[in-house]
């Protein structure tokens, strides 16, 4: 690919989507780091509350935005805006790898119960949060 | 994650997370194209791979900046919990309860095994190898 072809791709619709996802994910990652650093100061270091809460909040927002901007939603936005918020912001803000690593660390420290709690709480509360966001948006859209 | 949190660490995470997010989207597009949309293979694959790398980096990468770039940045931005939640919910909404359950069990089990294998690979390379 020549530089002019690369520029052509980057300034086209597909390039724009990648740009907005990079921006959203970068900002989401920064917000995640801030929350993960604040959480131990508030809740202590015994349990990975930071990543758990980040994943719950991000799951709520993605459920809300998905339904709010869906075909029957009240808010109609472009595909790029949807990708920016859902794939970018929510995707970059939440993380599965830190959840896996935190759980592994709890198990290696012999804290099997805390590791199990992290798994069960993460799965249940995140799917619950996405459902809650989805339900809230559906209600908002019906009015 | 240990080490002082500086402006620099935020910049490393922003860069890593931006690249990770783009990688995640690219993988999701490829997964839909080659494996279809009946199961969220893209997110599952991305989360398994990212969990392996974070486990490896946790042991093998010593320097603070590189840890922020690779772990909270690249792996954090590459993997996602929100898409996992939403896709599981969508499978439930579409009446595919078995697929939703399979997604939960496979994600949790495979990612935990993967991060553990990453740790083992890290120990094989040597602590603080990078």
Task: Write up what this structure looks like.
The complex is a heterodimer of chains A (143) and B (130). Helices cover 82% and strands 0% of the residues of chain A. Chain A contains six helices and no strands. In chain B, 81% of the residues lie in helices and 0% in strands. Chain B has five helices and no strands. Chain B has 130 residues and is mainly alpha-helical. The model of chain B has no long low-confidence stretch (mean pLDDT 95). Chain B is globular, with a radius of gyration of 16 Å. The longest helix of chain B has 29 residues. Classes of the chains: A mainly alpha (143), B mainly alpha (130). Chains A and B meet through helix 2, helix 3, helix 4, helix 5 and helix 6 of A and helix 1, helix 2, helix 3, helix 4 and helix 5 of B.
List the defining traits of the structure above.
heterodimer, A: 143 residues, mainly alpha, 6 helices, 82% helix, 0% strand, B: 130 residues
Q: How many DSSP-defined strands of chain B?
A: 0
Radius of gyration of chain A: 18 Å
Q: In one word, what is the shape of chain B?
A: globular
The chain pair with the largest interface is: A-B, 51 and 51 residues
Could you give the order of the helices and strands of chain B? Answer: HHHHH
Low-confidence segments of chain A, given as residue ranges, are none
Proportion in β-strands of chain A: under 5%
- Measured between the Cα atoms of the first and last residue of chain B, the distance is 17 Å
Work out the helicity level of chain B: over 70%
């Amino acid at each position: 690919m020549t530089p002019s072809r690369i520029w052509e791709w980057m300034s086209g619709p597909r390039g724009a989507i990648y740009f907005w996802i990079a921006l959203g994910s970068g900002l989401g990652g920064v917000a995640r780091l801030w929350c993960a650093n604040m959480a131990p100061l508030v809740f202590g270091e015994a349990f990975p509350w930071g990543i758990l809460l980040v994943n719950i909040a991000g799951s709520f927002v993605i459920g809300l935005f998905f339904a709010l901007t869906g075909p029957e939603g009240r808010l109609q936005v472009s595909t790029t805006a949807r990708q920016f918020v859902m794939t970018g912001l929510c995707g970059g803000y939440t993380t599965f790898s830190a959840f896996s690593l935190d759980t592994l660390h709890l198990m290696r420290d012999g804290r099997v119960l805390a590791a199990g709690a992290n798994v069960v709480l993460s799965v249940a509360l995140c799917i619950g949060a996405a459902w809650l966001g989805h339900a809230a948006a559906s209600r908002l859209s019906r009015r | 994650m240990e080490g002082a949190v500086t402006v620099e660490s935020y910049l490393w995470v922003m860069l890593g997370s931006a690249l990770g997010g783009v990688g995640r989207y690219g993988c999701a597009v490829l997964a839909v194209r080659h494996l279809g949309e009946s199961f969220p293979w893209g997110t599952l694959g991305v989360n398994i791979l990212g969990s392996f790398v974070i486990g490896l980096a946790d042991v093998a990468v010593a320097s603070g900046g590189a840890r922020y770039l690779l772990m909270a940045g690249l792996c954090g931005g590459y993997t996602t919990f929100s898409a996992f939640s939403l896709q599981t919910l969508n499978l439930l909404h579409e009446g595919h309860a078995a697929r939703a359950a399979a997604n939960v069990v496979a994600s949790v089990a495979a990612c935990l095994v993967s991060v553990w294998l990453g740790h083992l690979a890290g120990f094989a390379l040597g602590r603080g190898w990078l």
